[in-house]
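We give this protein:

***
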Amino acid sequence: MPSGLGWMVRMNKRGEREHNVNVANRAKEAKEKKNAIHQAKLDSITNNSRQSPTDIITTFQRQPFTSSSMLQIGFLNNPIYVERSDIHLGGEITKTSAGTSVVPNLNCHYDAVSPPAQQGVTPPPKPSTTFNGGVYELVQFHFHKTSEHTLDGNYHAMEVHFVHKMTNADGDTQYLVLGFFLRDTPNDAGPFDHIVNWDNNVTDYSVTIRSSDIPNHYYTYPGSLTTPDFTASVRWIIFSTPLNCKYIDNWKVIKNTPLGKPMRAPQRTLESEVQRVDTN
């Protein structure tokens, strides 16, 4: 009987090994299927013509359009109260011979919060922007160094994005992003100096955008978020005249990489969909 018992033990171990192999194979197949679905989604998204950022060709012959009311920035001349988030991991899509993948990218957001409470005073709502009749609530702003968008193929030192969102009647989320370029002006102050300087002693990150900071024209186009999952439901507003910034060289760098470094080149966009709007 010892030989029979040994045979049973060996068979049990063999069966256990085969079971483990089958479980591992099923897990591998499930992972490959999930990756294939994700891959197809990324390829579909990145092949969409309405992707961002883009290169804005200022010399493109566009139909003249003037409107002083289409864009109404509700927080001009008033402080925007925000809280700085922890540095977090985002990502950008890159295409290689092996397919499409997401490359990590560090950044931090400045999340819009309600103004400080004052006794006997009803606090105003969160800042918002109205575009073409839709009211979008400001969610956060963040920076990129260098800029993500380009003008006639040229990058700016930095770009700040004011991300808004609105939920429509169907329950779908629509985004509106205001993009401002920043230029390096060591002798001239700008509205974001205290943030870009990255002084850890700073606790008040509130920002005030003045009416005088807004040029008399902007470019707008339908695009996407510039981080996964690259949702193509974004209305972009790009102000081509850059704002001053004294401390661009002091912007936070981790392992020789600035926060918010663009890792996605300007995407293919139908130039005819990029509209210049003059406000006066």
About this structure: The helical segments are 2-46, 193-196. The longest helix spans residues 2-46. The chain has two helices and 18 strands.
